[in-house]
Amino acid sequence: GTGVGLHLTAELAAVHKGKTEYTPSELGGACFSVSIPLSDENYTLEEIIETHALPDVSKTTDLISTDDSPEAVSSGKRYQDYKLLIIEDDDEVCEFVSQQLNESFSIVTAKDGTEGLKKAINEQLNLIVCDVMMPGIDGFEVTRRLKADFLTSHIPVILLTAHSSEEHQLEGIQAGADAYITKPFSIKYLMARIVKLIEQREKLQQKFAQEPGAAPIHLINFTDRDKTFLDKMHALIEQNMESVDFSVDTFAQIVGMGRTNFYKKVKGITGHSPNEYVRIIRLKKAAELLATTNLNISEVSYKIGFDDPFYFSKCFKAQFGKTPSAFQKGG
């Protein structure tokens, strides 16, 4: 189902001055009835906000409002290069959310936790939105497995659930979720959380790439294994800094990963392909050498694995906005 459950039903009934009652069923099991008064005499003037006709609440998609266009949240920016995975067992909800988010993102869907875990490994994902209450593997367990698997541990996860209690939110956080949204929710709010998580990572990745010097990249909500992996990458680049022939294939072999998985992992953590990231680290090292040594431009170029000083100067300016000579002079 949608995961709304009896608890949310009782809360909604209470908000509308109604009540939820239980009686044993003659056929076995339980019978629950909900009664809501129709007259506005049951409400104070302060409680009556709008007087227009109520919407049809017969569909599960009414758990989701479309109060604003999703694109309005991102100030017109589109994220079609970003791929999201929606894991939701309710076909109607899954289709509705996917259609709304598809205006801004590339969307992949999975009907349960098992399929979702497989797609998380096979696809190059930027974020996962997962329902909590699903048959088989629930959203909490999906999140725990994603964060425990080195190939998927870096992917942000947003959990959707009808449980609003502090206990359930704590369980989601402990499982490793990056955000926890309770139903009913608006597409605008979901979009805002997605955009914020993506932009937070982008800003840190860009800050690291565009600032000269050897300061380490700061990561948001990455696991210890991700940080260890990145530290190992930096150590290997440092050891092979002067080697023009040091390739991504060699790099992947040293860390014991296949080329495809290695590419996806580096891209997921840093926002750059392995080749781009190696070049950034080398250029940052060049900035450090230019600022702390008396080496000339050509000598610095060779020290960081560039065999063409002219090409090095071109890359350096593209990365930091000034030529190596201007940087060395402090201008």
Automatic annotation (TrEMBL):
The modification 4-aspartylphosphate is found at D131. It comes from the Bacteria. GO terms for molecular function: DNA-binding transcription factor activity; phosphorelay sensor kinase activity; sequence-specific DNA binding. Residues 83-198 form the Response regulatory domain. InterPro entries: CheY-like_superfamily, Homeodomain-like_sf, HTH_AraC, HTH_AraC-typ_CS, Sig_transdc_resp-reg_receiver, Tscrpt_reg_AraC-type_HTH. Residues 231-330 form the HTH araC/xylS-type domain. It holds the Pfam family HTH_18. CDD domains: REC_OmpR. Keywords: DNA-binding, Phosphoprotein, Transcription, Transcription regulation. PANTHER family: HYBRID SIGNAL TRANSDUCTION HISTIDINE KINASE C, TWO-COMPONENT HISTIDINE KINASE. This is Transcriptional activator protein CopR.
